[in-house]
């Protein structure tokens, strides 16, 4: 399988230049007050003196949709900001929007088919494929040239993701309440809410249907056994329980 790195030669400069960037705004955050002078001063000091190296390694913004494992009716828009840990592993922080005051709602790890194939059966139940997300046009890389986006999608189509959301924004929670929830990606047409897709598309002035047609020549790799386990009728989720403290 092709590695991730060749795509960086083409996309990194473009992604850095054209990815969604907006001037910072001082807005009230969910469950709290507006930023005060001390907070702004601390932020300015950190910006000037600290390296923020892990954040600077982020080079890609992709936007798609997730649903809660075991409850496909609970669907959310997910803005991924991703970096590479190597040729076969990416890690992404996930926000609910691409605005300066976006909520950090989760994380996703993305690996190649080769690495997924080596996982044990129980671990595989936590992972989902990206074939439909790419071929349906639902997964996009906002505001980069179509040729660069398509090349990126060619590399993502055969990968697998493990996603945990820590903030249940679809419930309107003002704070990140409860325990992490395992999320999945769609595997067939008609599963994602049309209104959710329409709202996202209108925000960027794009058409998922057009992207689907444009990606029709992207080969669909065979989905390896063990992924998308929710389709079997069983779904994995965490549960909160009290244990003796040691």
TrEMBL record:
<protein>
    <submittedName>
        <fullName>OBAP family protein</fullName>
    </submittedName>
</protein>
<feature type="region of interest" description="Disordered">
    <location>
        <begin position="197"/>
        <end position="246"/>
    </location>
</feature>
<dbReference type="InterPro" id="IPR010686">
    <property type="entry name" value="OBAP-like"/>
</dbReference>
<feature type="compositionally biased region" description="Basic and acidic residues">
    <location>
        <begin position="198"/>
        <end position="217"/>
    </location>
</feature>
<dbReference type="Pfam" id="PF06884">
    <property type="entry name" value="DUF1264"/>
</dbReference>
